[in-house]
Amino acid sequence: MPERGRTTRDDTSPAGEIRKDSPRPTRSLRRTGLLVTFTLGGLTATPPLAMDMYLPALPEVTTSLHAPAASVQLTLTACLAGMALGQLLIGPMSDRWGRRRPLLAGLALYVVATVLCGIAPSLEFLVAFRLVQGLAGSAGIVIARAMVRDLYDGEAMARFFSTLMLISGVAPVVAPLIGGQILRVTDWRGVFAVLTVVGIALTVLVWFRLPETLDPADRHSGGVGEALRSMRTLLADRVFTGYVLTGGFAFAALFAYIAASPFVIQEIYGASPQMFSLLFGVNSVGLMIVGQINGKVLIGRVSMDTVLAVALAVITLAATALLLMATGVFGEAGLFPVSAALFVLMSVMGLALPNTQTLALMRTHHSAGAASALLGTTSFLIGAIASPLVGIAGDDTAVPMAVVQLAAALVAVGCFVGLCRPWNRRTTLEGAES
After folding, report:
1. Beta carbons within 8 Å of 58's beta carbon, 6+ residues apart
2. What is d(CA 40, CA 335) in angstroms, rounded to the nearest whole number?
3. CA 68: distance to chain centroid?
4. Cβ atoms of 308 and 351 closer than 8 Å
5. Each residue of 336-383: pLDDT tens digit?
6. pTM of the model
7. Cα separations in angstroms, 136 against 17, 57, 110, 140, 339
């Protein structure tokens, strides 16, 4: 059995299949592998479902609740902050009590919070229960990622994350489209009614079909103190912290787009909610396709660090182009060139996000829940900070969005180069071998 804290590839075949002599509890998962994969994909789809389906309704919420655009964007910030803080709590809980119990409790609370969001009488009420919705919904994100770490390692883990990106990537494609169509027949409250139904369906699926993946022998027996020590040990690993921060700031560039694009595309460039939903869906398809290229073509042929370096370079170039267009350097930019730059930026996230997650999680096996929590919490907290910044100059300019995206991309590059040091093979492997 692998030593605790040690990364090993002994449990997987070159094709990424779980070996029959693996000490991990995977027998039931082998029998229901496809269903489990789709269930994990559904859990990782919680953020795009909770946020992207709601995006076309943001301008309507400003009118309905008599609030300015910058204040309404706090509903996104609250949900994102909740997802960040919730992961920090639920991840270590899943290391102690297993994956299923915290997951089911989180999903049940998510359903209740979503119902209350749908009946919110004021912006303050909506912001408060978007926070609760995020706290509860974080269970699906952090535990799904920890379950993947329970089952896979190395290149197999990277391939599985790319597969999850294909499945969960359907959510940002269809969510804004569904949201736009819901607005044709009802108001923004109907969006939360649909989210409630989805939450109930996912809870039922997990209850009946998703088995436990963490063997009792691998669970922590300690309480808060042990969880904090595990996180401190992980953060002391410079390379792990580097990948966490790199992924977090790359995610911030993505979330700046998520938070600002409803206003940039609809208010500045005059697109309808349905056109915005279509463009958002196209960008999500790009992310899915690039994610599959990563998993099916690049992994095993090109080092993950090299792929990540290229992805960060392209994200930086796309953000630079957006800033130049927003400031009028190329003259008055229309919807098409701005959409094209956003398409490139979002698509390349299909390379950046799964590889940063894999490279970080490869450095730990024991305390996978805590490691997953640190990954998710960092990404969502940085994204929550980026969200209000994109509206700081009002909703009639795209400059703040582009500035936030470029700044986040440059910091991500700095963390990758300064902390991960991928050219130094010895530092890259140290944490994985200890």
Report:
1. 69, 72, 73, 262, 263
2. 36
3. 27
4. yes
5. 888 899 999 999 998 998 899 889 988 876 777 888 889 888 887 887
6. 0.73
7. 32, 22, 5, 8, 33
